[in-house]
Amino acid sequence: MVVVAVGRGNYHGASMSESVRAIPGAPPLDQPVPRDPVLEVSLEAYARTSARLASKQPRKQVLDAAKLDERAWLTVEKTWLLRLAVAAMRREMDLVEVYDRAFLDEKRATGG
C-alpha cells in the first residue's frame, strides 16, 4: 500500500496519520518493496517494454513480443508503478535506478 499526502495547509509537525492516505494495491510501507517478477515480467523487462511502447512502436507488436496481452500488461504496469512509487517515496532509489537504466538502454538500442 502506498501513502500520499492529502489535506490542507502546512505539514510541519503533522503526524503521518494526519497527512497521508493509503492507495490500494501498493506494497505495505512497513515491508520491503517486492522485487519478484510480476506475471514473469522482471523490472528490467518491464522497463524495456515501456521504452518500446514510448517509442511509438505498434502496441500489439510490442506486447506480442513480450508475450503479454493487454490485460496482463495493465497488471504488470500497475504493479511495477506502485512498487516504484513506494521505493521513491522511501528514497530507496536503487529500484528506480534499475528501471531508469533498463529504460534508457532500450531507448538507445532502438534509436528512441
What would you say this structure looks like, in words?
With 112 residues, this protein is mainly alpha-helical. It has five helices and two strands, in the order βαβαααα. The chain has a two-stranded antiparallel ribbon with strand order 1-2. The radius of gyration is 16 Å and the shape is globular. The N and C termini lie far apart (33 Å). Residues 1-20 have low confidence and may be disordered.
Summarize the structure.
This protein is mainly α. The chain has a two-stranded antiparallel sheet. α2 packs across α5.
Query: DSSP helix count?
Result: 5
Measured between the Cα atoms of the first and last residue, the distance is 33 Å
Helix content: 40-55%
**Relative strand content:** 5-15%
Poorly predicted tracts of residues: 1-20
Q: Which strand order do you get reading across the main beta sheet?
A: 1-2
Cα-atom radius of gyration: 16 Å
Helix/strand order: EHEHHHH
Whole-number tally of structural domains: 1
Average pLDDT reading: 82
Task: Tell me the major beta sheet.
Answer: 2 strands, antiparallel
Number of strands: 2
Based on secondary structure, the structural category is: mainly alpha
User: In one word, what is the shape?
Assistant: globular
